[in-house]
User: Fold UDP-N-acetylglucosamine 1-carboxyvinyltransferase from Deinococcus phoenicis.
Amino acid sequence: MQLTPLHLQGGRELSGEIAAQPSKNAALPIIVASLLSSEPVTLHGVPRLSDVYTILDLAHHVGTRHAWVGPNSLTLHTPEILNTDAPYALVSKMRASFIMMGALIARAGQATVSMPGGCAFGYRPVDQHVKAFRALGVQVEEEGGNFDARREGSLKGTFVFELLTVGGTQNAILAAVLGGGVVTLENASIDTDVVDLIGFLNSLGADIRGAGTNTLTIHGVQALRGGEYRVIPDRIEAGTFMIAAAATRSRLVLTNVRPDHLRAISAKLTEMGVDILETEGSLIVDARDRELKPVNVTTQSFPGFPTDVQPQMSALLATIPGTSVVQDPVYPDRLTHVAELHRMGANITVSGYTQVIQGGPLHAAPVKAADLRAGAALFIAALTTEGETVIDGVQYLNRGYERLAERLRSVGANAWQPQPVLASAMD
Ligand code: EPU
Assistant:
């Protein structure tokens, strides 16, 4: 079905309470990890997003059957593996599908997974995933656009990642969980989504030590049992709403958050002049009547400032008088928001991965999201303008933001998405 654009009439103060959705990027690998057990697994806190439906399609292809048992609760069951491939049609739709490789290596001993290719913000290599598999004893061949992996016996040994990678660490963990070997991963990611994956796997009986540190030790176990698990809240979505509060000089209460996952964003907003109050499971962001200051931001792996919030922060800074410098070395080409923000009057000069932003008032314009977080940047910008902004490319926003227009309305934004006109209704 053709999606209609998102309309936003900005210039309003937001107020009230908004609950962050469960984490997309934690849920995706945990859904895949559920197939390491042949028993049923129930997950709570699964966001209803198009990326989740894509990973469920892939899981279905390999043999996982699922049923929604609550608004955000899902039961998954993989009694046996029916296919050991992840075809291009699904991997090209969503890069996170590459995580299927580790799970299939563990459960089925083999996997044929399409190379993910590029995405809207550039080339995203998987060399560290493949190097880790090979170092731990998996044979991996590249042929016809696919990686073909096979293991004889258990994975064992040590691999030192050349850089911090969330997906690479998760893939290596998944591959090593079953069997009798001992695997050590050095320079492993300490991202919240890696820690949550480990929490989930250990709750099913895996033996993974060192979560939240750069050294992980995985003692392979013979089998995982079924179980029940709650996925962490989405820190990227929460960060987006924190920035929305700052951009509209509003006070918002964010619930279902882990304030300790949001400290880099809180620190930047505080530096700008926003008041942030942390409580257990919630955050109060207060930017009412504040004159905000420009700041410099550089993205890093967790616990640094997240690349997934860079476009939204750039949009906010484009509205703050003065000069801000934003650098995204994690994804140097994550810049598709810039040309669209220019259409709204932003003054942003790009050199390599550096944006030099001269902030000032923006105006409404028709714009188009080319990827998920660029779409988020556009709705932040739209919230600050008096006129009506029409954001096309809603399919990208639907990948990461649940019921966005409805939830923005619940805190006072004037946001709506007209219903599509069906062909039959036009006859
Ligand atoms: N990298 C390599 N080689 C590899 C793997 C990664 O050079 O083999 C590089 C990447 O090019 C990047 C850096 O390492 O420069 C970090 O990439 P990482 O592997 O950590 O990213 P990812 O696991 O592919 C996840 C999120 C992304 C998020 C990044 C960084 C999921 C499904 N995706 O991707 O989320 O940007 O971590 O935090 O978890 C999003 O939600 O909008 C999104 C793109």
